[in-house]
Every structure is written in structure tokens, then in C-alpha cells.
Specification:
By secondary structure, this protein is of the alpha+beta class. Helix content is about 20%, strand content about 30%. The chain has 5 helices and 13 strands. The strands form 2 sheets. Strands 2-1-8-7-6-5-4-3 form an 8-stranded antiparallel sheet, covered by helices on one side. Residues about 1-15 have low confidence and may be disordered. Keywords: Signal.
Length: about 210
């Protein structure tokens, strides 16, 4: 693994990458939590990020320190520093996520399609549990098109003929892949799933305040 990290450092080169990046967000690593954005690592400024083979990245900090991120997926990555020899396995800390690079495609689509899409079933079930996921298919059966609000694509939905009793909202974060769901079933209190931090989109906020 260390030899591979050295190879990443030697071979990576290229222009700046388009955002969002698949490793953005917070991760639970062997050595503790790590947080990335497109501009910072652990709150410190990043000078450049370059991509090699799919899933491998080279990060150069402004002080010249370099490390590799390898085998990056929506839920895991390997952090490696050839300078120190440290290698850490990391899992995403923010709950269920989807592939961030694909989420913008949901802009303009109704939210009920989200709960019927095969590619979204696994992250939604991981987030909500199977029973709540099945409930959501009915609760979002009537839905307008989702819209983009900053880093989020979000929309609302309700159950046909019961929109005053059963309704909800869902949001997908384009930067880190987080999924948020707020849902109220008839006769039950509002329930929420996902890590609600930062500026949240209006559909989620308005639904949670009903």
C-alpha cells in the first residue's frame, strides 16, 4: 500500500478538479475524525487536488505537505502519507450517502422517483431502515419537481388524498452526498433521518417546522 501511495505521488498530474469531490465531508479514520472540503483539510487550506486512476487523489497542502487518498468510494477511502509512512482506513461518518457526482441529476425530478430508483434504495434503506423506506414510497407518492438550493437538491411530497396527514421532504447534498429525510405519518410525530448540519434547504426546514 505504501508503494502504491508513492506511485500516486509520482504519477498524478493534471488540472484542478470540478466540484463536488467524492471525498468531501467527515470521515471516521483509524487515527480519528477527518474532514475535507474542496478547499480545506482539517480546517487547513489545500493548495491543489489532482486525480489519477479512478478513485485515487493527490492532495497538496499550502505548506507543501502531500498525501494520497486511494480507493475513494461514497462510503470509504484509504488515507496514506508516503512522507510519514502512515496509512489509515476511513469510513464516512455522516450516515448514509449516495454518489455525490450523480446527485445533480435529481434536480427537476419529482421526489417519488427517488424512492423508487434502484440506485438509491441501498443508501435510503441504510439511512431510514426498511420499514420507513417502504412508508416513504407512499408518503412521497404525490410530489412536485425537486429543485437545487445551493449545495442541496431538495423537494417535498405527500400521500395521495392524505396530504394534510402524511407528508415529507428529502434533500441530497451535492458536496458530500448526505441524504436528509423528514417524514410525518398519519397519527405519528415528525421523524427525521440524516445529519442536519449547516444551511439546510427550505423544503426540509419548512417541513420540519409544520
Amino acid at each position: 500500500m505504501l508503494l502504491r501511495a508513492l506511485a500516486v505521488l509520482i504519477t498524478l498530474a493534471g488540472p484542478a478538479l470540478a466540484e463536488p469531490l467524492p471525498f468531501e465531508g467527515t470521515w471516521d479514520c483509524d487515527g480519528g475524525p477527518m474532514t475535507f472540503s474542496a478547499q480545506t483539510y482539517q480546517g487547513q487550506p489545500i493548495q491543489s487536488i489532482e486525480a489519477g486512476v479512478p478513485g485515487d487523489y493527490l492532495v497538496t497542502m499550502q505548506d507543501g505537505y502531500r498525501f494520497a487518498l486511494m480507493d475513494v468510494t461514497a462510503t470509504g477511502l484509504t488515507w496514506s502519507s508516503p512522507e510519514s509512512g502512515d496509512i489509515m482506513e476511513c469510513r464516512r461518518a455522516s450516515g448514509a450517502v449516495a454518489a455525490a457526482g450523480d446527485l445533480s441529476a435529481w434536480n427537476g425530478r419529482p421526489s417519488y422517483e427517488l424512492f423508487g430508483d434502484a440506485s438509491m434504495q441501498a443508501p435510503l434503506v441504510a439511512l431510514m431502515g426498511q420499514d420507513a423506506y417502504e412508508d416513504a414510497k407512499w408518503t412521497f407518492s404525490v410530489a412536485p419537481e425537486m429543485r437545487q438550493y445551493g449545495d442541496w437538491v431538495s423537494g417535498t411530497g405527500c400521500r395521495a388524498h392524505m396530504c394534510n396527514q402524511e407528508y415529507g421532504a428529502v434533500a441530497l447534498n451535492l458536496r458530500d452526498g448526505r441524504i436528509l429525510v423528514a417524514m410525518k405519518l398519519d397519527g405519528e410525530a415528525m421523524r427525521t433521518w440524516g445529519e442536519a448540519r449547516g444551511d439546510l434547504p427550505p423544503p426540509i426546514v419548512d417541513t420540519m417546522m409544520k
